[in-house]
Write a structure and sequence with these properties.
The structure is a single chain. This protein is 49% helix and 13% strand. The protein has 230 residues and is an alpha+beta fold. The protein has a four-stranded antiparallel sheet with strand order 4-5-7-6, covered by helices on one side. It has a three-stranded antiparallel sheet with strand order 1-3-2. α4 runs antiparallel to α5 and α5 packs antiparallel against α7. The protein starts with a strand and ends with a strand.
Length: 230
């Protein structure tokens, strides 16, 4: 049976060695040790890592992946499928909800743009000029993010790219403030910015469902608020 040092497994799988060490600490990917203390993996560990990576791409949390690995050890595919199906169904439901929120926000932006494209009234703004858009009353949103395990499904180059995207976006904010559970960024009005933020927020919530991300549009600025469990 072939064996692999951690650097060899990282090269073969495309998963950084730092992530492999994290998986070991989290109880997902145990490693044997040589007499010198070096980590070594066998072909079974390679298959186990492929399963972990696949589960992360489905947006599953580490606790869920750990449970699936326990089921996988029993050797019955039917048992894994029976446990995996409701997890995937739950992710579809969560994703559909986020998509619906973003579509509603896009519809609201379209309405504001239509109102602002018309002729401006003479003189100062008034309640009917279209600059102030009163939104519909918001219904309380279930705060499922508070109870979602803190685990991101991105790793390696994808995580680096996402971090770079957020850092670049943050440089465009003209105000930043800490909140009790996160951060709020304020941006000046700029063509296409709201769509960029909405797209990035949707991508982030897809890989990090433990985050609560909200967008609020005013006539003079766009506010992005991000909350995370403490």
């Amino acid at each position: 049976m072939a064996t692999y040092r951690i650097s060899q497994l990282a090269e073969r799988s495309g998963v950084p060695a730092t992530t492999l060490r994290f998986y070991e600490t989290a109880g997902l990917l145990p490693a044997e040790r040589t007499a010198s203390g070096y980590r070594v993996y066998d072909d079974a560990a390679v298959d186990r890592l492929a399963f972990i990576t696949s589960a992360k791409h489905l947006g599953l949390a580490l606790d869920e992946i750990r449970e699936l690995l326990d089921v996988r050890e029993e050797g019955a595919c039917a048992s894994i499928r029976a446990r995996l199906l409701p997890l995937v169904t739950s992710r579809i439901r969560d994703t559909d909800g986020r998509v619906a929120d973003l579509r509603a926000f896009a519809d609201r932006l379209t309405g504001v743009r239509t109102a602002l494209s018309g002729p401006a009234p003479p003189g100062a703004c008034d309640p009917d000029c279209g600059c102030t858009q009163a939104g519909p009353p918001e219904s309380p949103r279930p705060e499922t993010w508070r109870h979602t395990p803190v685990a991101c499904t991105l790793d390696g180059p994808a995580l680096t790219e996402r971090t770079t995207q957020w850092q670049a976006l943050a440089t465009e904010a003209d105000h930043r403030e800490r909140t009790d559970e996160g951060v709020r960024l304020s941006f000046p009005p700029r063509e296409g910015l709201a769509t960029r933020i909405a797209d990035l927020a949707a991508a982030e919530q897809n890989c990090c469902p433990f985050l609560d991300i909200t967008l609020h549009l005013t006539p003079s600025s766009l506010h992005l608020t991000v909350h995370a469990p403490k």
